[in-house]
Automatic annotation (TrEMBL), chains A, B:
Keywords: Calcium, CBS domain, Cell membrane, Chloride, Chloride channel, Ion channel, Ion transport, Membrane, Metal-binding, Repeat, Transmembrane, Transmembrane helix, Transport. The chain crosses the membrane at residues 50-70, 90-110, 161-180, 201-224, 282-302, 326-349, 396-416, 423-441, 461-488, 495-512. Belongs to the chloride channel (TC 2.A.49) family. Its main location: membrane. One of its GO terms (molecular function) is metal ion binding. Homodimer. Interacts with BSND. This is Chloride channel protein. It comes from Microcebus murinus. Gene3D superfamilies: CBS-domain, Clc chloride channel. It catalyses: chloride(in) = chloride(out); nitrate(in) = nitrate(out); iodide(out) = iodide(in); bromide(in) = bromide(out). One of its GO terms (cellular component) is basolateral plasma membrane.
């Protein structure tokens, strides 16, 4: 009966195969199949692209892990070589220096020979791209290999060169995101949807940060703060999803590879939980933030000045133009010679890797108190249980070593940033900040050896907490971000210092943001990339500046009745990308936009059929198939500068036409905006 | 000599007073004074308003702390009364129920009598305001008192009524922010700058959340996610500053009041740090997220349905219309009777306050394992050291109590949300989620009493971690936010479960967002507040819909040559807020916007001077001083729906005129957008 029913249902609806009919429980199976079908439709409906986000996260995690794995092998080989080579100073020196020199010059030569875009961190360029500028080929997947190989070599040179991974990794991730976006457009459709592509890039940036630090929260927030001035909650959610997939896979791999027992954070700390700090210490945390802010201004200024010096000095610029690997090798030789451990290197803890630097600086014991009465010798090899011994030299004390480390690494980092190879600059800055904080923390632990007495209770001061706050504050000030505070918590797995660290970061940012452009903005300025400045002078008078005061009135309009000869003359004599198309020369009513490239093509196609005696005008070319674009947005002369700036920023625009009563009267682009904004702060001299 | 030099310098520059001249070190003092002057200029320059933000944070922290303090006294008095009243069941029952009934009916009556806006959480209305709608008087400081008193009474009713503080606190904070914004406009200037005022409101929302939970990070992010669809990094930084000031002051007060020894988090947990969870547990965390997602859909559906039922049912609607306090008292009586501890209340841990609920649910010991062999009796009074005993009844076991708690609180919370008084709904939802997670965690700890064996190492399962994940996932799903995960970490001071909790929240959000509108959006729909829906159906065809397909073509334009009689007719027969002003009736070229209110005023001023025989037109009124507003932004018929939606959302617009070749051809407002968006998913039947 059951089967008969099934048969009847089958015959009235879908045809039922024999196998289906005779298998057990045909109804249930059909139900399950329908359910799966429904789930599939729900999950993979058009427009959904969570699987692309997941792919992006997983791919980047795989790459990040594989890169870390390969690099750790190379570093281990270097250590082995240095250890086994014997006691001859010359041999040891050579084995210490040749390795990074070779890696750096190879990295520089290889990546530069494939593509000139691969140098530096890539974040400034991405910032420009996300604000709407098209930088040709910058996100092409072809550059991927160059960047991966170059970055691996840079990182394999280790703490000698003292460069990080974040920036290039964000670039790599965005490259893959752009590639996946193109794949999606091909498979799903939705061509020409620029905002969709941007969504993918934003998620890519978040994944880049998250897969380096295994920190999804700060990955998303840091990439947002660095990349854009506005963002949508929708992008933020997508970023979280992709970043979580990435961070999870990244940490999962190290569990699978038996490096860890379970998924934990990268730099585990053990700060006391019950009373992590005494209330009066808040003052010192804020003071630390202020110190970090001032030092970050000094750093940013020196870095930008030196970068400009290298670009303009005839010797360096010639060297960089003709032989990049040689310059890189020279710089690496200087850096490696200084870090040679039996020489100056022993005073700057140069035998530690960058991860070990952080691990040791976040230590919650006070080194100054531990070495007050005893003076442990410098170990032959870094002791994994007591990494902090690397920071102690009896003749220098802890304070001497930390201060010397700061001074040396300050200029060494600036030198390293000029080497033209793929490298990140966030991690070294983070470590510098940690050292600043540690120095203050150690000083406080000596000044108050019994802790600060508040309310009758004494608690020891934890210098590691200051290192944490210093790292967050200094890196936050240099990059003009606040989410570095969150990053510090995600890296260490403890959030007990939430308020003091956040206050330090805010203090540092307040100073840095009012004095210097951020690291990435500074690079944009030095590299002369296009950018739209903020309106800083928030004066009342700035609200009275309207578009008609600064728009470009000298626009070339093309009217439908313009003779073709004149169109050709206009096209050949100007080189703007878009022309406003107006109804007639007389009325100047804006009706559309003509792209130069398409117009040239149409003119070329048209030209053979020209009959000399026949007067023809633009209308004929348009009728012949030259596409015009509709004007979807137009400014009025009365629009204020603030409104126009807001529009440009929010919608990632680069050019808008200004119409007055329908007539095209001008245009506004970044160039005009920039000029108007600079006039706000430095009013032009009256004529 | 030194003094002489000082004199000479003084005489050439500023005049020097005698006192200055004869005091010690005149130069240094002058230097210090100049430095202070410079600092003052730097800190208090026009346009800076950090001190308003700081004031906002500190004020809200003071209010929050004072409110908590007062409430704790009232609650303590209630507890004392209940304890001391003797063993008569009737007296005890009365003392248990009369208190909340009186408080709730007073709260409802008092706040509703002062202002009808004070009911509910306020977040839906704020969301509407921040999207650009003007809700008259909603942010007026006059309502402040009503909301504060009402909220205090609601909270003093304690866990009987089971309502929270977040929503109304956000509303209070935004009220103060709006007030401070008006003060700033008066003292500094910059009138009419709407975006500046919005900036202040956004910061206010962040402060509201941060001062309730002492959680600056999640305060900022939660308020952003709940309030807006887009936000600027600039607002985010300001939010951080204000929220940090608020959270710091809030915690500082409890240190000053000797409740805490130093600044720590609110619900400290002690999860194991080294191996917080085993890798396979990730599955259970994600499954928990999915369960929370499904339950949140059920909750949202029931809540919305019941709210609509109460509004439409003749009995309830009549009761609510005529006698709100009576309805509130009845509902409170039902809730209080059920929670009477010797009755049903003992099975739903009703003697615990809401904070104790959370504290006990985040406990890292497994209750099920502890009660497997022993059966501790129900204590006479809740034991602060063993709060979890409240969750255990020998005849019910832990699982029975937790499940019963969930089932009862589910409908009790829905009932409580219908009471018209100031109350927040986030905290109860957070606790419900914690209970869901705890139930799963306890079940797992029984199923795997030795922990899950992975790689030869065994670790006990921590049910508290599941409670944490459940709380974050359920509250995240109900409010459609992800930052609840961060809130869970900030509340507990531990971030070791970052990845599993985040994955649970993402899973819960994926389910909830695809099935139900969020709690706040649902309330907006039920309360019929204006809102702009998302474009959900991301179909390819949706990109082909342009403004001309859905714009309102039936607009009434006023031409400069329209006779005044006709203008009057138009003004009296229509009730739009703005009229497009066109050049002439014939050309219809858009030249400006006329506000109805101003036009009416100008017409009234004009009317006495009308001479009947003299034909006058609109031009004369305009020349007479009626102000016109410039058209700063206009759409074209070719603008796509997506672009227009983007513009409306980004710029908080409500109406834009559409021009084609300069001629005003239509208008687009939220009504048209909504219709167009609903047509995307349900295409209209072809005619």
């Amino acid at each position: 009966m059951e089967e008969l029913l099934g048969l009847r249902e089958g015959s009235s609806g879908d045809p039922v195969t024999l196998q289906e009919l005779w298998g057990p429980c045909p109804r249930i199976r059909r139900g399950i199949r329908a359910g799966l079908e429904w789930l599939k439709q729900k999950l993979f409906r058009v427009g959904e692209d969570w699987y692309f986000l997941m792919t992006l996260g997983v791919l980047m995690a795989l790459i990040s892990y594989a890169m870390n794995f390969a690099i750790s092998r190379v570093v281990r080989a270097h250590k082995w070589l240095y250890r086994e080579i014997g006691d001859s100073h010359l041999l040891r020196y050579l084995s210490w220096t040749v390795y990074p020199v070779a890696l750096v010059s190879f990295s520089s030569g290889f990546s530069q020979s494939i593509t000139p875009f691969s140098g530096g961190s890539g974040i400034p360029e991405l910032k420009t791209i996300l604000s709407g500028v098209v930088l040709e080929d910058y996100l092409d997947i072809k550059n991927f290999g160059a960047k991966v190989v170059g970055l691996s070599c840079t990182l394999a040179a280790g703490s000698t060169i003292f460069l990080g991974k974040v920036g290039p990794f964000v670039h790599l991730s965005v490259m893959i995101a752009a590639y996946l976006g193109r794949v999606r457009t091909k498979t799903i459709g939705e061509p020409g949807n620029k905002s969709k592509q941007n969504e993918m890039l934003v998620a890519g940036a978040a994944v880049g940060v998250a897969t380096v630090f295994a920190a999804p929260f700060s990955g998303v927030l840091f990439s947002i703060e660095v990349m854009s001035s506005h963002f949508s909650v929708w992008d933020y959610w997508r970023g979280f999803f992709a970043a979580t997939c990435g961070a999870f896979t990244f940490r999962l791999l190290s569990v699978f590879n038996s490096e860890e027992e379970t998924i934990t954070c990268l730099f585990k700390t053990s700060f006391p939980v019950d009373i992590p700090y005494d209330l009066p210490e808040i003052f010192f945390f804020v003071a630390l933030g202020a110190i970090c802010g001032v030092l970050s201004c000094a750093y940013l200024f020196c870095q930008r000045t030196f970068l400009a010096f290298v670009k303009t000095n005839w010797f360096f610029s010639k060297l960089l133009a003709t032989s990049k690997p040689l310059y890189s090798a020279l710089a690496a030789l200087v850096l490696a010679s200084i870090t040679y451990p039996p020489g100056v290197g022993r005073f700057i803890a140069s035998r530690l890797s960058m991860g070990e630097h952080l691990d040791s600086l976040f230590d919650n014991k006070s080194w100054a108190l531990m070495t007050r009465n005893s003076s442990p010798p410098w170990p032959r090899e870094p002791d994994p249980q007591n990494l902090w011994l690397e920071w102690y030299q009896p003749e220098f004390t802890i304070f001497g070593t930390l201060a010397f480390f700061l001074v040396m690494k300050f200029w060494m980092l600036i030198l390293a940033t000029t080497i033209p190879m793929p490298a990140g600059y966030f991690m070294p800055i983070f470590i510098l900040g940690a050292a600043i904080g540690r120095l203050l923390g150690e000083a406080l632990s000596v000044a108050f050896p019994e802790g600060i007495v508040a309310g009758g209770v004494t608690n020891r001061i934890v210098p590691g907490a200051y290192a944490l706050a210093g790292a967050a504050a200094f890196s936050g000030a240099v990059t003009h971000t606040i989410s570095t505070a969150l990053l510090a918590f995600e890296l260490t797995g403890q959030i007990v210092h939430a308020l003091p660290v956040l206050m330090a970061v805010l203090a540092a940012n307040a100073i840095a943001q009012s004095c210097q452009p951020s690291f990435y903005d500074g690079t944009i300025i030095v590299k002369k990339l296009p950018y739209l400045p903020w309106i800083r002078g928030r004066k009342i008078s700035s609200h009275r500046v309207t578009v008609e005061h600064f728009m470009n009135c000298a626009i070339t309009t093309l009217a439908k009745d313009t003779p073709l000869e004149e169109v050709v003359k206009v096209v050949t004599s100007t080189d703007v990308a878009e022309y406003p198309l107006v109804e007639s020369t007389e009325s100047q009513i804006l009706v559309g936009i003509l792209r130069r490239a398409q117009l040239v093509q149409a003119l070329q196609a048209e030209s053979p059929s020209w009959a000399p005696g026949q007067p023809r005008c633009l209308q004929d070319v348009l009728a012949g198939g030259c596409p015009t674009e509709p004007v979807t947005l137009q400014l009025s002369p009365e629009t204020s500068l603030h409104q126009a700036h807001h529009l440009f920023e929010l919608l990632n625009l680069q050019l808008l036409f200004v119409t007055s009563r329908g007539r095209a009267v001008g245009s506004v682009s970044w160039a005009e905006m920039k000029k108007a904004i600079s006039n706000l702060t430095n009013p032009p001299a009256p004529k």
